[in-house]
């Protein structure tokens, strides 16, 4: 399917947009499952809970990676979706990304399906705090830790780093509990209230646009299936096949930035 055909199929409809890691690759954040992505096994939720050694490994890598993730900026694809929201076609934007770039681009009707990497939650008392505060505390506890390490950043802000044995953890300031980034880990369920929020938002839509997701995991695919049951036209923008292809009107096999920019231009935004 061409970008022009996608624009024609979706024109005049109230859009619900579902985005994935492929949208942020042009902001310098790699995709887990893109055609050029190296094999990688991110930490699971059960592994994180397994003990302090696993958490030490996670936080050491994430502490370094978050500095790099925090320097990422929205690309033209993010800005195109923000423009389409401000002028009406996009009614809700559901993102599987945790990088915060949609909000940075100006989108407001955002549902962070997998949480936000800029927030931290205590697993004992449930207190949610800003990641920057924790970042400063970890800096103080680990001055110059791996400052010059040659590492590669992942979509969740993690990096590849072999030696994390010297990294010092810090506890929740309120209760001394275990701190975890407020994101959905692999093997962890998306909170039911958040899923219901998406279904509620979809009640105000007429069509689904998927951008930059292979729909490999059910957390996103369920909404494609729901849209199909509603009889909506579904258009997917993604390099490579997705699990949603059989349900879609068509797939634009091209980059998100160029395609979303073309759609916004075609609709006069």
Low-pLDDT runs of 5+ residues are none
What is the gyration radius calculated from CA atoms? 19 Å
Percent strand equals: 15-25%
Shape: elongated
Q: Based on the coordinates given, report the CATH architecture of the largest domain.
A: 3-Layer(aba) Sandwich
CATH superfamily of the largest domain: TPP-binding domain
How many strand segments? Answer: 9
Average pLDDT, all residues: 90
Secondary-structure element pattern, one letter each: HEHHHEHEEEHEHEHEEH
Please indicate the count of domains.
2
Can you offer a commentary on this structure?
The protein has 269 residues and is of the alpha/beta class. It has two domains: 1-29 and 74-114 and 190-269, 3-Layer(aba) Sandwich (Rossmann fold), CATH 3.40.50; 38-71 and 117-183, 2-Layer Sandwich (SIR2/SIRT2 'Small Domain'). It is built from nine helices and nine strands. It has helices spanning 3-10, 45-49, 52-69, 76-86, 101-105, 131-141, 192-202, 218-229, 256-266; strands at residues 15-19, 90-95, 110-112, 115-122, 128-130, 179-183, 207-211, 234-237, 250-252. Helix 1 crosses helix 9. The two termini are 21 Å apart.
